[in-house]
Specification:
alpha+beta; five-stranded antiparallel β-sheet
Length: 481
């Protein structure tokens, strides 16, 4: 069994560099930025960060670990935690006195009244489109009972995502010395939020009509997204931007988190502490990312990841081991980002065979890491899967498979030598059996005629006797003698 596995394993390893492709994208090591021969832009803001969401590749970083005040981009985390902890978005929430009067009156609000009721869905749109601080508190109280308890949930979720220098004390982002984050951590938070379909629907909405309920007269209000990069009528509009969040306080300055897509690339840009430069800084970073880097889909027709392992001469002996079955190497997400000036042939790969218990259970036999500029830009698991459900049973097969070509020849030679011998022995055995049968019949006939004449006479009488069972009765009685 072990020898068979080794045989398959060594054959597969000889073509790993041909068949491997990206699967589980990993975030680049902190501080490791993928560079190109084109200089990165200079932004005005205190800190900036650009990341490709599908691969986790960092394309730009300026003061990425500096703790800064986030202002209302905090609400990205608020929305994510609310969505993840809500079962029914039609639930009604009631605005408390703390939600209405516990925050600055001149800050951004939907201006709800104490006791006014909205659904969770409506409040989420008010949170993300109108940047309603009153919605933030009301939603926090709905989920956790109090804003302080909700802030602890936000911190716990940030730690799960991988944030290293983030601490929240409220759900809205209004100024507090103990409420801070970094552009790096906000990119991680936004990347996680983008994986949530409900968040994407809400945050990509440009306008939302809300019907008021218990505290207002009949009618409706329309909330419009505050991110000008999503407004085609704005000078700050950028084609491809599909979601984001703005923020501002005197201490934080302008903050902005924005997502844009083009081709296979989904870029996340975060800028913080910007003196009215947040839109221009974001545009410059998006242009840099989209114009000078490319995401390669390794699962496309140009880069196939599934191959027939049973019908190619390359695999030779593998076919005799697995009975000619077709196999493929399964991968997951298959994205790899590179500078436009770098061909795929310059990418190095590193193979590891330590796949752990989960890997062994799933027939994963190796992992490949892809490196450029001595940094990991992606990795994949290599899993051998049969394309048919039935095949050679390695566990229950008792005859060992020959290990070498010499042994194969020896086995074939044995078959050629012994097959004629078996044929001759079979013929002789059949002849002997026939002769023995003939002698038995002859001897039996003679005994019946000369030794037991009385039995023959009685047998004839039984055949001639009247019996309802006829000859069958005679046969039955004959067995009694």
């Amino acid at each position: 069994m072990c020898s068979i596995k080794k045989r398959i394993f060594h054959i597969l390893l000889s073509v790993v560099t041909l068949f491997a492709s990206l699967s589980l994208p990993v975030l680049a090591e902190e501080g490791s930025v993928l560079t190109t021969d084109v200089p990165a832009p200079e932004i005005v803001g205190e800190a900036g960060f650009l990341m490709e969401a599908n691969t986790g590749t960092i394309l730009y970083a300026k003061n990425e670990n500096e703790a800064l005040y986030p202002a209302s981009i905090t609400k990205i985390m608020t929305a994510l935690v609310v969505i993840e902890n809500t079962e029914n978005f039609g639930d009604v929430i009631t605005f408390s006195d703390a939600a209405v009067n516990g925050i600055d009156w001149d800050s951004t609000k939907i201006y709800a009244y104490v006791g006014e009721q909205l659904t969770v869905e409506q409040a989420l749109y008010g949170l993300m489109l109108k940047s309603g601080n009153d919605c933030a508190v009301a939603l926090a109280e709905y989920v956790a009972g109090s804003e302080a308890a909700f802030a602890e949930m936000m911190n716990a979720r940030a730690a799960e995502i991988g944030c290293t220098n983030t601490h929240f004390v409220n759900a809205h982002g209004l100024q507090n010395e103990n409420h801070y984050t970094t552009v790096h951590d906000m990119a991680l938070i936004m990347r996680e939020a983008m994986e949530n379909d409900i968040f994407r629907v809400i945050d990509s909405t440009v306008s939302y009509k809300v019907d008021w309920t218990n505290m207002r007269e009949s009618g409706f209000d329309t909330w419009v997204m505050g991110n000008k990069m999503m407004n085609p009528n704005s000078d700050s509009y950028y084609e491809g931007v599909f979601c984001g969040k703005t923020g501002y306080t005197d201490q934080a300055g302008n903050t902005l988190v924005t997502c844009a897509t083009r081709g296979n690339s989904d870029l996340i840009c975060v800028v913080m502490k910007c003196p009215q430069s947040h839109y221009n800084d974001t545009k410059a970073l998006f242009d840099y990312g989209f114009n000078h880097f490319t995401v390669y889909d390794m699962a496309s027709a140009e880069n196939p990841v599934s191959y027939d392992m049973g019908g190619t001469n390359f695999f030779g002996n593998l076919e005799s081991v697995v009975g000619g079955r077709s196999f493929s190497i399964q991968t997951g997400s298959t994205c790899l980002m590179l500078p436009n000036s770098v061909p795929l042939t310059e990418i190095q790969s590193r193979l590891t065979y330590d796949v752990g218990e989960e890997g062994n259970a799933s027939m994963e036999f190796a992992r490949v890491q892809y490196l450029y500029q001595d940094r990991v830009i992606g990795e994949t698991s290599l899993t051998l899967l049969p394309e048919t459900e039935t095949g050679f049973d390695f566990e229950n097969h008792e005859n060992p498979v020959p290990e070498t070509e010499t042994q194969i020849v020896q086995e074939e030679t044995k078959k050629m030598v012994f097959q004629p011998i078996y044929l001759v022995l079979g013929v002789l055995g059949a002849a002997a059996a026939g002769l023995a049968a003939f002698l038995v019949i002859r001897v039996s006939g003679r005994k019946d005629q000369y030794i037991y004449p009385e039995k023959r006479t009685r047998k004839n009488r039984l055949r001639n006797a009247s019996s309802p069972f006829g000859s069958l009765d005679g046969k039955r009685r004959r067995r009694r003698y």
